[in-house]
Amino acid sequence: MGFSTHKTMALVGAVAVVAGLGLTTPAYAAPPPSRPAPLAKSLLTTHDVPHGYVPGEAGNIRRMLGAALAAHRPGADPCAAGRPAPRPAPAAGRSAIAVFLHPEKGTVLAEALADTGEETAADLVAAAGTMLAKCPVVTTADGRLEIEPSRWNPPLGDESITLGLRFGWDEPASRPALRGRMALVAYRNLVLIVGLIGIGEPDERDLKRVVRAAVRKLVLTSGISVKERT
């Protein structure tokens, strides 16, 4: 199975909506040239993900993440109508992205890590929980997103939540519905988002493995000792 751009875009668009970021997915300009980021050392590599996943292009995902974080307002109702005025996006190097593809399973795996500050990191997790409870169906520019509770929802980092996703396009004949699983984790001043999406239901075992690996790597490379946590 081949991967097209819209599948990768749908993953991050769905992740951003679930996180309460109010992000839609119209056309995007080309992203600026990539460069090493301080957070990149904490990202998953091919050695951390299940067998069969190969590196993919982050491309416009980095641009979408910056726009999403810029639109978020801690404490705002993620279910409220309308979108807040954007603020300056995080400085270059304050976020990092990793994308992997599994050609046989037809699954996209994406990891996003951003230094948002403690308040925003915790609020992103809380906003996802609010959306699950109050507005689990979201209409986006491209279709309809349904948020579901996850059977696997362990405590991770300082705050965390895992969710199931269903995304249906406005033009289902040309683009099949997508299923996904995702986890949001707040760890001190950082927010970690891990998502898997595909035409079929993503393997829960893959989600558990990559989320645990991502959290473990974040803790070990962040310079914050587990003993220092309150």
UniProtKB/TrEMBL annotation:
- Say which domain of life the source belongs to: Bacteria
Keyword terms, alphabetized = Signal
The secretion signal range is 1-29
In Swiss-Prot or TrEMBL terms, this protein is called: PknH-like extracellular domain-containing protein
- Is Signal one of the keywords UniProt gives this record? yes
Q: Does the keyword Signal apply?
A: yes
